Amino acid sequence: MSTEMKHGLLLIDKHPGCTSHDVVVQARKLLGTKKIGHCGTLDPSATGLLILTVGRATRLTRFLIRAPKVYEGTIRFGLETDTYDLSGEVVAEHPEAASRLDDDGLREAMESFTGVYLQTPPPYCAKKVGGVKYYELARRGEETPKEKKEVQIHEFRALAPLAAGQDLPFLLSCSSGTYARSLVHELGQKLGCGAALASLRRTRISSLYHLEQAVDLDTLRRRLEAGEDPGSAWIPFDDIPLPFAEIVADPQQERRIEHGQTVLVRGIEGQEGDWVKLLDQRRHFIAVGAVVERIGTGDVGIVQPKVVFR
After folding, report:
1. If I label 172, which of 29, 67, 145, 264 is the partner at 20 to 30 A Cα–Cα?
2. What are 254-277's pLDDT values in tens digits?
């Protein structure tokens, strides 16, 4: 592996037919390192942006995995499946009800999901109960829990008018942990015609990572074998953008941060409990800290290093 690719983020455009873990396994072989993780599972049939953390960047997974996601996909109305997508067995069909759908009713139903709501995970998913995955229970014919989880839908809308006999393209912007399959299934129930997820592609993670930056594994392999730069798909550790403020430490503060000691800093815009990215004066990434106290009404506060990289 290139010495330039030991620590950082690798943005992969995942192909259908493989799991997120499969991508991690292949990336470990390509880069020659075991220390690789991913930030947010994609179903085997789904495609699009998957962030891999490499080397010391694996310690950032908990911050990146919670970022909101944006997807584009397609919905097939008039049927229901046991997996809530087209990979499963059809359990009900409602073609006549689907033929009566209209754009105004569809728009109103989709908009009704925006905001915070309680979502039931699909029966075939990797969520665990008592150490057993839901899909393992479902495959054994056992009932999966109906435990609901709070998610937030920022935007859910059609990207084209309804057309007879065609799947509907849609856009979904949502919080981490949202199941697009469940959302589509519940939309079909609300409309009274059933619906299944026909395709799904993740296009963005937060406002910082875009599908256009990513490469698929085959392209990455060819570039590495040819000794070429992976391009925008690779983000070196010091350049990793995070969804919170940056603080540049002076040399004295830097030494305290390296020892896990609190520092008094200026330039704090957030509230107590907010995360900050701590850099040295050469803009090397040295730690992630949390604001533990605001002082006065200005931008001064005390930061406690939480994840130190030195």
Report:
1. 145
2. 999 999 999 999 888 878 999 999
